[in-house]
Design a protein that fits this description.
The structure holds two protein chains of two kinds.
Chain A: H1 3-25, H2 30-44, H3 46-61, H4 63-72, H5 76-90, H6 98-118, H7 123-130, H8 137-140, E1 148-149, E2 152-153, H9 160-184, H10 189-212, H11 215-235, H12 249-255, E3 268-270, E4 276-279, H13 280-285, H14 305-326
Antiparallel strand pairs in A: 1-2, 3-4
Chain B: H1 2-6, H2 10-27, E1 41-43, E2 46-52, E3 55-61, E4 67-73, E5 90-92, E6 95-99, E7 104-109, E8 123-124, E9 134-135, E10 139-143, E11 148-153, E12 164-165, E13 177-179, E14 182-187, E15 191-196, E16 202-207, E17 217-219, E18 222-226, E19 231-236, E20 242-248, E21 258-260, E22 263-267, E23 272-277, E24 283-288, E25 299-301, E26 304-308, E27 313-317, E28 324-329, E29 339-341, E30 344-348, E31 354-358, E32 363-367, E33 369-370
Parallel strand pairs in B: 4-33
Antiparallel strand pairs in B: 1-2, 2-3, 3-4, 5-6, 6-7, 7-8, 9-10, 10-11, 11-12, 13-14, 14-15, 15-16, 17-18, 18-19, 19-20, 21-22, 22-23, 23-24, 25-26, 26-27, 27-28, 29-30, 30-31, 31-32
Classes of the chains: A mainly alpha, B mainly beta.
Chain lengths: ~325, ~375
């Protein structure tokens, strides 16, 4: 079977009908249908997302041990073997984050086509839609679809505010992810540069896509990213990210805010053999990256909740790793 | 391996981005390209056809039965781009009133294809034009996909009176009908409007359950409206548009219904042709072509009901029973309504080819197109 036929029959056409049906269920609002679809797609992929988030957390927790391996072994081959051995020992897959993204990619592309087909502006595009709809009353009676949602025309290219929203949401997601890495291990300059680049590049590229594709797709991406942030926050935690950390040091000084304390203060580190070798303060004192903080979050929170949560997570991670080892 | 160790997400991100770029590039902009489906029009000894997107060709029959181009519009000096032509050109007293998808309306000389001096350059309306304008002899009523109707003086192209905001920004794609000083208009947002042309006021509006994209048909006081909810509605035009009956088919009704005697013939987007009792709305017979969607209007010529689907499948049916008299295939896709010329039917393919069909036996001939200056015989 040609790939185009498979794509249309098993992904695009079902998605067209799903979107049209959702639109009918959401009082004829295609925008609400997109949001509902986003929630459904995130719910369907949630087990995979959860596994990825746990995998990400385990990887981040293992950063000190990976660094020790890198210090300990100069031979790249040996270093690599030891690292992979560590991954096996912890039961994590470094490519574990592939799953949800690989699933999201075809959905993103298919949704792009679906929005263009279902919200087509020309008579031909609407006429061609008739050949794609299932013989269901709920679907057949839903055409034409409403093309406006709040102030958005879902057919037109994404407006600037939506582009900005996607950029901010994706930047925040990248920031939270990369922040955890920085908090747990001081990256080498190359990796730090890479993190920095990705933090800006990914949001910039996706914002560009939102700018050139129909706003409906931008709405999906914005909603999906925001849901992703919420899931990450709930199931992995914000890492060393604090809202206060968004304020640059210079602005902090001029506003008279407290100087930031190192992130994850008091968090124990583990050596390659799993023994705890020190705290984040030690690492900061030893020249590790010292991040600014507003003093109301992370290990510096007065109620100590974050500190306990980090410790609890670390313990849970240990426990899970232990279970995997036993298997 | 080191790559994975240091930047486990990098290959994924790079692959994702590359795939996105390639996919976005491949998808292109095909869905937003209007092609137009204006019906061919007869002008004395010739034809007007949209031979390519946004270009109107005047063709002349040659002695051998072929076609030769007399002129086309626009030419490069006209500095106008019609984009596509959906509205069938209106021809009256040697003048062609042409409305392009771009929103431009122009009056051309049938003889030369040049804009009338009294009109000057095309009048640009706010919105795209899909519906064929209604014409009362002195004024054109041009509907746009922004739900508005503009009245133009046929002699000068001047806008007569205020622009009528009929459908509140909802596209008007179906051809309106003008009769007895009332303009009947259907919009895609499921509403039929009756507008008094003198006052510009709404005489009545009737909300239906399905979107309305098909041309309206008015037979005596019965207004027929094909809808996207798979129903054909019959409304009483004299009684506030109250529904007389509705008929449910197997797909969208996006073609002008054909009224002949006491029967109404209407095709659907699933390729089925229905014969319906004009008074009761009851089905008399149906014929499933097993082909693709039918948008072109059905025609009844010499006692044969001819239906053509989008992919070129053509069939001649007995109007009384739906029995198949003959079948054939036209080489090309067809969306434009046909032109009945005497006892023959002319179809225009989306490639701009003109095809002649003889309804008596189903013979199909593609009319050869000769270049300018090479007319024979």
């Amino acid at each position: 079977m040609p790939i185009g036929f498979i794509w249309q029959t098993f992904l695009e056409t079902p998605l067209i009908n799903l979107m049209v049906a959702l639109s009918a269920l959401t009082f004829g609002s295609y925008g609400l249908a997109i949001l509902l679809f986003t929630v459904i797609s995130r719910a369907v992929t949630f087990p995979l997302t959860l596994r990825t988030l746990h995998s990400m957390r385990s990887l981040q927790d293992a950063q000190p041990r990976i660094q020790e391996i890198q210090k300990k072994y100069s031979d790249p081959k040996r270093r690599s073997e030891e690292t992979m051995k560590l991954y096996r020992e912890l039961g994590v897959n470094p490519l574990g984050c592939l799953g949800p993204q690989l699933i999201q990619l075809p959905v993103f592309i298919a949704l792009y086509q679906v929005i263009r087909i279902t919200l087509g502006t020309t008579p031909e595009s609407v006429l061609s839609l008739s050949g794609r709809l299932y013989d269901w009353d709920i679907v057949q009676g839903a055409i034409p679809l409403s093309t406006s949602f709040l102030v958005l025309d879902l057919r037109e290219n994404g407006p600037i505010w939506l582009v900005a929203m996607v950029f901010v949401a994706m930047w925040l997601q990248q920031r939270i992810s990369s922040g955890r890495t920085r908090a747990t291990a001081a990256p080498n300059p190359q990796q730090a540069q890479m993190n920095q680049m990705m933090q800006w590049m990914m949001p910039a590229i996706f914002s560009w896509f939102v700018f050139i594709v129909p706003a409906g797709l931008g709405l999906y991406w914005a909603a999906s990213t925001i849901i992703g942030i919420v899931l990450q926050w709930i199931f992995v935690g914000p890492g060393d990210f604090t809202w206060g950390s968004l304020v640059p040091a210079a602005a902090r000084q001029s506003l008279g805010l407290k100087p930031a304390a190192p992130a994850h203060a008091g968090r124990p580190r583990e050596s390659v053999d799993g023994t705890r070798t020190g705290t984040e303060e030690d690492r900061s004192d030893a020249g590790g990256e010292a991040r600014t903080d507003d003093g109301h979050s992370g290990g510096q929170r007065k109620d100590g909740r974050r500190g306990r949560r980090s410790s609890a997570r670390s313990a849970r991670s240990q426990s899970r790793s232990g279970r995997r080892r036993r298997r | 391996m080191m790559f994975h160790v240091k930047h486990p997400r990098l290959p994924l991100v790079a692959a994702s981005l590359a795939a996105l770029v390639v996919a976005t590039g491949c998808i292109g902009d095909t869905f937003s390209q209007p092609t137009g489906w204006a019906s061919p029009v007869e002008t004395g000894e010739g034809l007007l056809v949209q031979s390519e997107r946004g270009r109107l060709d005047a063709l002349e029959f040659t002695a051998s039965g072929g076609l030769v181009e007399r002129w086309h519009y626009p030419v490069s000096d006209d500095e106008v781009e019609l984009v596509a032509i959906y509205a069938t050109p209106v021809v009256e007293d040697g003048v062609i009133y042409l409305a392009g998808y771009s929103g431009d309306v122009v009056a051309l000389s049938v003889a030369t294809g040049r804009p009338l001096p009294d009109w000057g350059p095309p009048v640009r309306l706010d919105g795209h034009i899909v519906a064929t304008p209604a014409f009362d002899g002195t004024r054109l009523y041009v509907a746009t996909d922004r739900g508005r109707v503009t009245v133009l003086e046929a002699a000068t192209g001047r806008v007569a009176g205020p622009v009528l905001d009929v459908a509140g920004d909802h596209p008007i794609w179906g051809d309106p009908v003008l009769q007895g000083g009332t303009l009947y208009i259907a919009d895609i947002n499921r509403t039929v409007h009756a507008i008094g042309v003198d006052s510009g006021e709404a005489r009545w509006t009737q909300a239906l359950d399905g979107g309305l994209a098909a041309p309206l048909a008015l037979d005596r006081q019965v207004l027929l409206a094909g809808a996207l909810d798979s129903r054909l509605y019959a409304l009483d035009a004299e009684a506030g548009g109250s529904p007389l009956w509705s008929f449910e088919g197997d797909g969208w009704f996006w073609s002008r219904p054909l009224v002949a005697g006491d029967s109404i013939y209407a095709p659907t987007s699933r390729g089925t042709v229905y014969a319906i009792d004009r008074f009761s709305g009851a089905q008399r017979w149906s014929f499933a072509s097993e082909g693709s969607q039918i948008r072109t209007a059905l025609v009844l010529v010499d006692g044969v009901l001819v239906a053509l689907d989008k992919d070129g499948g053509i069939v001649g049916l007995a109007p009384s029973s739906g029995a198949v008299l003959w079948r054939g295939t036209i080489d090309g896709d067809v969306l434009a309504d046909p032109l009945v010329r005497g006892s023959e039917i002319l179809y225009l393919t989306t490639d701009g080819d003109v095809v002649r069909v003889h309804p008596q036996d189903g013979r199909i001939e593609e009319l050869s197109r000769l270049s300018l200056g090479s007319r024979d015989g």
